């Protein structure tokens, strides 16, 4: 009578129960790690180094708003530049004229392959090669160019994919109404393409916000500093990490709402399909 019971006991677990047990073990390990970290950490020292109250107040009141505004201005200008140039590059990449395609492909591959830091260094050293060169609205113009050039290479591929996602019948219908290729692109194809490109372009904007932290490489006055340089300078001045933590929180004020917007746009696009 005991044989069926033993056979049942030896029966392997179902995939669902096995997954539940593995998940329970993972949760238990995670909870154990968190508990050990909580009891092992020196919270007083952590507070002194990363969350010193008087330094938080100093960082916020001494010029955080100006640094936040500079970060937004640097990012917005680079995004507009990258969007315009990226659109032109995408159209050139899809052109039937060979030289246009070759130039656009070379530009995109070159600047996608270079780290943004190298591009900033190139622009910071440009006066050595061209002493008479003056970029308008410096340093804002320099930042917009350096960041925008890199961004345009990535945006060009995003925009090209959006254009190719528009049904070919749309272009044919526009041409049948007497529109030229340029008019069809501007009035019919691009407006439809940009609706599908909004989520990835917003992601590019988030990346630009973070890449603006490289602005320090070109050398800036205190009034022109973005968040990273501002927090870094105060951290060095007070030999404490609190200003950098506050600067990081300021970045989150920009990026988290944008991330929420991206998720909502992606959800809306998914429902539309």
TrEMBL record:
<keyword id="KW-0812">Transmembrane</keyword>
<dbReference type="Pfam" id="PF00528">
    <property type="entry name" value="BPD_transp_1"/>
</dbReference>
<protein>
    <submittedName>
        <fullName>Amino acid ABC transporter permease</fullName>
    </submittedName>
</protein>
<feature type="transmembrane region" description="Helical">
    <location>
        <begin position="21"/>
        <end position="41"/>
    </location>
</feature>
<dbReference type="GO" id="GO:0006865">
    <property type="term" value="P:amino acid transport"/>
</dbReference>
<feature type="transmembrane region" description="Helical">
    <location>
        <begin position="139"/>
        <end position="156"/>
    </location>
</feature>
<feature type="transmembrane region" description="Helical">
    <location>
        <begin position="113"/>
        <end position="133"/>
    </location>
</feature>
<keyword id="KW-1133">Transmembrane helix</keyword>
<dbReference type="GO" id="GO:0022857">
    <property type="term" value="F:transmembrane transporter activity"/>
</dbReference>
<dbReference type="InterPro" id="IPR043429">
    <property type="entry name" value="ArtM/GltK/GlnP/TcyL/YhdX-like"/>
</dbReference>
<feature type="transmembrane region" description="Helical">
    <location>
        <begin position="244"/>
        <end position="263"/>
    </location>
</feature>
<dbReference type="InterPro" id="IPR010065">
    <property type="entry name" value="AA_ABC_transptr_permease_3TM"/>
</dbReference>
<dbReference type="InterPro" id="IPR035906">
    <property type="entry name" value="MetI-like_sf"/>
</dbReference>
<keyword id="KW-1003">Cell membrane</keyword>
<dbReference type="InterPro" id="IPR000515">
    <property type="entry name" value="MetI-like"/>
</dbReference>
<feature type="domain" description="ABC transmembrane type-1">
    <location>
        <begin position="68"/>
        <end position="262"/>
    </location>
</feature>
<comment type="similarity">
    <text>Belongs to the binding-protein-dependent transport system permease family.</text>
</comment>
<keyword id="KW-0472">Membrane</keyword>
<feature type="transmembrane region" description="Helical">
    <location>
        <begin position="205"/>
        <end position="224"/>
    </location>
</feature>
<dbReference type="GO" id="GO:0043190">
    <property type="term" value="C:ATP-binding cassette (ABC) transporter complex"/>
</dbReference>
<feature type="transmembrane region" description="Helical">
    <location>
        <begin position="72"/>
        <end position="92"/>
    </location>
</feature>
<keyword id="KW-0029">Amino-acid transport</keyword>
<keyword id="KW-0813">Transport</keyword>
